[in-house]
Structure formats: C-alpha cells, structure tokens
Amino acid sequence: EDTLNPVLDDGSSNAISLHQPFKYFGRTYNQIFVNNNGHLTFTEPLYSYNPILKSERDLIAPLWTDLDNRRGGTISYREDTSNAVLAQVTAAVNQYFPNIPFAATSAFVATWNRVPFYNGGGVVTFQVVLAYNFQRSFILINYGNIPATTQNWLAGYITEDSVHSYTIPVTKAPELSSSSNINVNGQWSFNVDGSPKLPTRFIDLEEANIVKYIADNRSSEAIKLQQPFKYFGRIYNQIFVNNNGFLTFTEPLSAYNPILDSARDIIAPLWTHLDNRRSGTISYREETSNAVLAQVTAAIKQYFPNIPFAATSAFVATWDSVPYYNGGGVVTFQVVLAYNVHRSFILINYGDVAETGQP
User: Fold this and answer.
1) Which of 121, 264, 265, 274 is buried most, with the most CB atoms less than 10 Å from its CB?
2) Concatenated DSSP letters for 265-334?
C-alpha cells in the first residue's frame, strides 16, 4: 500500500529507509526523499521548485517544477518486493536493456497523480520507478497527461558532480507524454548504477553478502567460516564484520574509538566511526572459487616468496564508499583473509580514503 506525501506547498516526505540500498552512479544510498515538486533526493529533502541543472546533489527529476498538492491530487510512494511487481519491472528492464543481465530484487515507486501546477494551469500525472538489485540500478519514468505550462520545468536526472546529468530533450512539457528513448510513448528508461569498478587490486565479488544492519555502531551476525582461520596460535570458526571498520572473532564490538589494548583479537583495516545509514555498503563473503583462490595465492607468493602457500579459503570484507560519522567524506577499503589449515595472511587494499579529524 502506498504512503501519501504531506499536503504542503514545497513539501517532502520524511526520510524513507530503503530495505535494499540503491546504487546511483557509484554512490550507494540507504534512504530516499520524495519531494512534492517532482523529484527524488537521497541525503536530505529539497523544497526548491525552480529546477537547477547544477544542484550539487544527486537527484532524479521525472518532472521538477512548482506543484501544489494543496489544491488536489496525490503524491505517494512505496518500496515493493512482491513477486508480481519485481517480475514486471525485470521484464521491462530486460526488454529495454537486452545486453545487461538483470533481475530486480526491489522496486521503489513514486507517483504524482493529477497534481496541479502551482500557477493553476492544469494537472500532471507521472511516475518514477527505481528498479534495482545490489549491483544494478535502473530508472523507469512513465508520463501520463502533462499539460502545457509557463512555469520553469526540467525532466531527467542530476549527479552531485554534474558528470552524469541528463535532461530529457523536449522543448515543451506536453511532449514528455509522447516522447521516449525506448520506443514506447511517454516512457523513458536509464541505467544509473554507473558504478566504477573497485580498484583493480580489489577482489570484486558479485554475490557478496551485504551487512544487513544499516545502523550506527552495528555489526554482522556471527559468520560461520567454512574453514577455520588461524590467528597467532588461536583458531577461530566464526567472524564478525563490524561496521566501524574492523573484524572480530568472539563477539561483535560496537566501539568507534580505536583502542590499541582492547583485550581481544581484532583486524582493523580502518577502525574509525563510520555511518552506513547515510550511504555506502559493507559486504563480505567467504570465497573458495578457483579464480579467487588463484588470485590471493598469487598475491601471497609475490609478497612472501619464501613461504610455500596455496590458499584454500579467502574471507573478503569490503567497505565501499561508506561515510565518516562526522560527514567529512567517504572511505573505500577491503580486507582479505587468505588462508589454509597451516598458514594465514591478511591483505588490506585501500581505495579512496578521505581526510578526517576523527580518531
């Protein structure tokens, strides 16, 4: 069932927590805002009714203009994971992008139904659907009746750095109802994950498990290791991936201030206060595929040529574009435990790590 937006001039929904994160041109968001004036934002609501192409924020604008739901119409939204809707949006994406393998695991749907222009010159009906899984993201925009208007308007999408911004190339608003980039009148579709590959030295796992606790100072559940990991004479059969940038073995640890003498075994690629509620993903996987084992074995042989070693398991944990708690930038890094029953190695890969004043 759809949730209705507040009836308010230049209003917005509250922050809507997404059950599954949405990847947008390399950035990953766990929340979204449906703004009354015809656009979606991710980090905060936007009340502006005058469209700005360089808005310095990530924004999806099926029709950004001054709308007034006080005079009529409804603005509603839902995140849908029902089999029927996922099958419908998957079929649409597969039809429009036949060369991109895709199966939706979530769909976020926002609908403006007969909402009047602020100046009173008619009502508009349109819908935007975010169809996505953990790797791929698509936008489907459906236009109903869009009357002519003298108001400023813009349709398309914008990125915070303006690198991937796109404006639907029509000169009059009513043309949105009859134009298309997929040969279906009134429908537009875009692939927007735009995710740059992790740095080449990183292990890129398509089927990694996402840490489900999108919360401050949380951790994964206990992860049972298929093969035990030897750590300075102690052997562990489980591991925890803690959101604040470290691994533990016996229990999760919520501390965000790093402690050198913590009286426990810890592997800390970057122990600091991180906040995956705002964006980014934290993921992990124990990997025993031949390709990954060959990759980590080759790395160990290169770095430790005098130690005979062949990996039989690799545990990979990745923090991808996760913000600092204080908001001062994002970090990307990865830790790999490469091991067999006799030997254990840690490989740490750093991508972009922003400067911070945090401990």
Assistant:
1) 274
2) -EE-SS-S-B-TTTS-EEEEEEE--HHHHHHHHHHHHHH-TTS----SEEEEEEEEEEEBTTSS-EEEEE
Quick one: what percent of the chain has pLDDT higher than 70? 95
Return d(Cα 290, Cα 150) in angstroms, integer: 62
Which residue's entry shows tokens 């206990």? Answer: 222
* Residue spans per domain, the chain: 3-191, 209-353
Contacts of 138 (CB under 8 A, 6+ apart): 89, 93, 97, 102, 130, 131, 132, 189, 190, 191, 192
Length of the chain measured in residues: 359
3-state secondary structure of 175: helix
Where do we find the tokens 């996987």?
Answer: 285
Q: Give the C-alpha separation, 135 to 154, whole Å.
A: 28
Angstrom distance (rounded) from CA 28 to CA 208: 15
- Strand order of the β-sheet with 281-287 is 209-210, 281-287, 313-323, 330-339, 344-353
**Residue 236 token pair:** 């562990």
Residue 310: CB atoms within 10 Å:
13
- Arithmetic mean of pLDDT, 104-109: 95
Compute the C-alpha angle 200/204/206, nearest 5°. Answer: 150
pTM of the model: 0.59
Q: Which residue has the tokens 């994160």?
A: 21
As given in the structure block, the two tokens for residue 3 are: 């949730």
Q: What is the mean pLDDT of residues 247-259?
A: 93
